[in-house]
Design goal:
Strand order of the largest sheet: 1-3-4-5-6-7-8-9
Helix content: 10-25%
Number of strands: 9
Shape: globular
Bound molecules: 2-acetamido-2-deoxy-beta-D-glucopyranose
Oligomer: single chain
Strand content: 35-45%
CATH class of the largest domain: Mainly Beta
CATH architecture of the largest domain: Beta Barrel
């Protein structure tokens, strides 16, 4: 018993004595890396986005399509997976101003991955990527915004999704999104 303990003690001494050298070495090798500064922080913007998207399961031109079916021996819907390319609008009506497309994939159990591609206004040509857990029976579903392009480079934030129940049918499902995002 005595020998391993002494060994451990010696090992920890060795670790402590080499640690500062390693830190010093890695910093001096990577001295070109910019550390966060006041300038970087003040150039960050916070933007709030509010829009709706429409899951259309109409016979002609559906915007969501099931690509993986639930296996025969599974009864809960677990495993079924969909791909989507939904119209995004400013208001809850499909006829309101189009703002872009919500393109992604989602499936059971509750996972969702969407790229919001903005096509109108200040954000035209930019996109936000969202990846999270979307239990559709709940209200105020929160999902992380994990990145973006264009004006949304370096984006981080969160989305709050709510189904607009009074407008939704099986063939036309309306979801409201509120997104708060910080970006450069
Ligand atoms: C979403 O944003 C709209 C418009 O800014 C606001 O009226 C609504 O309360 C927000 N909803 C949530 C759940 O944050």
């Amino acid at each position: 018993m005595v020998v391993p303990l002494r060994f451990l003690f010696l090992l920890s001494l060795t670790l402590f004595s080499t640690l500062p050298t390693h830190l010093h070495a890695s910093f001096s090798h990577q001295s070109h890396i910019e550390l966060p500064s006041q300038t970087h922080q003040s150039s960050q913007k916070q933007t709030h986005l509010h829009f709706f998207y429409h899951d259309l399961r109409t016979a002609n031109n559906p915007s969501i399509v099931q690509i993986v079916d639930t296996p025969k021996n599974v009864h809960s819907g677990y495993g079924s997976t969909f791909i989507m390319d939904d119209p995004m609008t400013e208001g809850p009506e499909l006829s309101s101003k189009p703002v872009g497309r919500a393109q992604g994939i989602f499936g059971m159990a509750s996972f969702m991955l969407i790229n919001f591609a903005f096509k109108q206004g200040d954000y035209a040509g930019s996109s936000l990527s969202m990846l999270g857990r979307n239990p559709i029976e709940e209200q105020n579903r929160e999902m992380p915004i994990v990145g973006g392009t264009g004006v949304f480079r370096f984006a981080t934030g969160y989305a709050i999704a709510n189904t607009v129940d009074h407008l939704s049918t099986f063939e036309h499902y309306v979801v409201e999104y509120n997104i708060t995002v910080r970006h450069h």
